[in-house]
Amino acid sequence: MRCYLHAFLLCMVFTFFSLLYVFNQLASTLEDRDEWNLREQSLSDRSSHDAGNLLRKMPGLVGRRDREDGLDRCKSLSVTYWSPYWRLPADVCGVNCLLESTFREKPGSAVKERSDERSHLAVVACGTRLEETVTMLKSAILFSKKPLNFYIFAEDDLHDSFRNALDSWPRTVHTKFNFTIYPITFPRENAKEWKKLFKPCASQRLFLPLILKEVDSLLYVDTDILFLQPVEEIWALLSQFNASHLAAMAPEHEEPRIGWYNRFARHPYYGKTGINSGVMLMNMTRLREKFFKNDMTTVPLRWEEILMPLLQKYKLNITWGDQDLLNIIFHQNPESLYVFPCQWNYRPDHCIYGSNCQQADQEGVFILHGNRGVYHDDKQPAFRAVYEAIQKYPFGENMETSLLQLLEASLLTTTHTYCGRASHLFTKRLKQSIMSVQQRG
Ligand SMILES: *[C@@H]1O[C@H](CO)[C@@H](O)[C@H](O)[C@H]1NC(C)=O
Ligand SMILES: *[C@@H]1O[C@H](CO)[C@@H](O)[C@H](O)[C@H]1NC(C)=O
Ligand SMILES: *[C@@H]1O[C@H](CO)[C@@H](O)[C@H](O)[C@H]1NC(C)=O
Ligand SMILES: *[C@@H]1O[C@H](CO)[C@@H](O)[C@H](O)[C@H]1NC(C)=O
C-alpha cells in the first residue's frame, strides 16, 4: 500500500513539472510573437525589409536582436518562480528572466540602435540657383550609403522646377532620399518685424531652428557645395559634440594674413579668423533650448530673442549678412561651437595663393565649396571641372569611368592655376568614395 502511495506521489510531482514545462514553452512562444510584432514595426520604420527576412529565417537570432533594440521586458527580476505567467505585469517576463538577463546589453547600445539613421540636409535656393542646388543634392546622393532627408527652401516660382528635376531622377535613386519643398518664410511670431529687417532669402538659415521645430538636427549647406564623400560622415560629427556644443562650422580662413574678418571686420567674430557658415551642422534641439550670452543685455537670450536686437545693433557694421551675425553670437558663446577642419568646407581661399589647408593636404577634400560663383566663370577652372563632372554624370553609369576619369582628364587642363596644381586633393577622397559605393553595388 505504502509503495503505491509513493509511486502516486512521484507521479504527481512528475506531472506537475511536466505541466510547468509546457506552460513555460507556451508562454515563451507567445512572448516571441509579441516581440515579432514590435520588431516588424521598427523594421518597417527603417524600411529595411531584407534584414527582416533574414531574421525570420534564423529565429535563433531574434531574441538577442530584440534585446539590443531595448524591447526588454525583464525590468524586474524579483519575480518568484511560482507566479503564474498570466498574472505577471506587462513589463515582467517569466522564468527565462535569468537567462535573458545574462544576454542583456548595456543601455547605451540600445539608444544607438534606435536612433535615426537618416541625415537631414537643408538648403535655401533663390534666383538662379536651381541647377546648382540640384547638382549639390545629386552629389549628396551619389556617395551616401545611408538615407537622406532633404529640406529645400525655395522661392515659390522655383518649386515646380525643383519637383520636376528631382522626380526625373531614376526610381532606384528615389529609394535613397525623401524631400520636402518649403516656401521662404519667417517664423509666424513677429513675421512683420522680421520682414522689415531681414532680406528673406539671405537670412532664412538663421530661422531654420524656429521653422523646423520638430527636427532635432540639421546639416545646412549653401547651394554651391559639392559633397565628395558620404553625407553621413559629416553627420557623424554630431555625436562628437560635448555637452555645450550646439553647432559646428569651419574657420573662415587658415591664413590670417589673407583673412577677411581679422583685417576688415567692424564687429566681433569667432576665433582668430572668424567662421564660414556655408557648411553648418546644427543640433537644433540645443539651439532652441540655449540661453545665449550677449552684449545687449545682462540677461541671456534665446535664439528667437537674440536675432533681431543683434541685427539692429550691428546692421551698419555687417558685410556678409547672417554669417556675420553667427560670428558675433559664437564670439560671445565660444563654448557652443565645434570647429571642424577646413577639408569639410574647402574654398578657393584654401588654394588660390598655394595650398594652405593642411588637413586637405593629408586626407583630401571632403566637401567642396565653390563660393563667389567659381562653378560658373573661368576664375577657378579646377572648381568648375568638379562641378561639371558631377552635373553631367548620368545616374546609373559607371562612376569610375563616367565621372572620375573624365574629371581627372579635365583637371589636367587646369594646372596653370594654383588650385589646379592642388587638384589631386579634389579627387583623393572622391576616389575612395566612388570605390566604396561601387563595391557595394
Ligand atoms: C520618407 O520615406 C519613408 C519610406 O522610405 C516614409 O516612411 C517616410 O514617411 C518619408 N518621410 C518623409 C518626410 O517624407
Ligand atoms: C541633440 O541634443 C539633444 C539634447 O541634448 C539630444 O537629446 C540629441 O540626441 C542630440 N541630437 C543628436 C543628433 O546628437
Ligand atoms: C561699427 O563700426 C564703427 C567704426 O569702426 C565703430 O566705431 C562702432 O563701434 C561699430 N559698432 C558696433 C555696434 O560695434
Ligand atoms: C566643449 O568644448 C569646447 C571647445 O570646443 C570647450 O570650450 C567647452 O568648455 C567644452 N564643454 C564641455 C562641457 O566640456
Overview of the structural elements:
- The structure is a single chain.
- This protein is an alpha/beta fold and 441 residues long.
- Among the domains are: 28-113, no CATH class; 348-440, no CATH class.
- Helices cover 49% and strands 11% of the residues.
- The chain is built from 20 helices and nine strands.
- It has helices spanning 2-45, 49-57, 59-68, 97-103, 107-114, 130-143, 159-167, 171-174, 191-197, 200-211, 231-235, 261-264, 284-289, 303-314, 322-332, 358-363, 381-392, 399-411, 418-421, 424-440; strands at residues 119-125, 148-154, 177-183, 217-221, 225-227, 247-251, 275-283, 337-339, 367-369.
- The strands form two sheets. It has a seven-stranded mixed sheet, sandwiched between helices. Strands 5-9 form a two-stranded antiparallel sheet.
- Strand 1, helix 6 (130-143) and strand 2 (148-154) form a beta-alpha-beta unit.
- The longest helix is centred in the N-terminal third of the chain and has 44 residues, at 2-45.
- The protein is globular and about 105 Å long.
- 32% of the residues are buried.
- The model is unreliable at 29-114 (pLDDT under 50).
- The protein binds 2-acetamido-2-deoxy-beta-D-glucopyranose (NAG) (4 copies).
- One 2-acetamido-2-deoxy-beta-D-glucopyranose (NAG) binds next to helix 14.
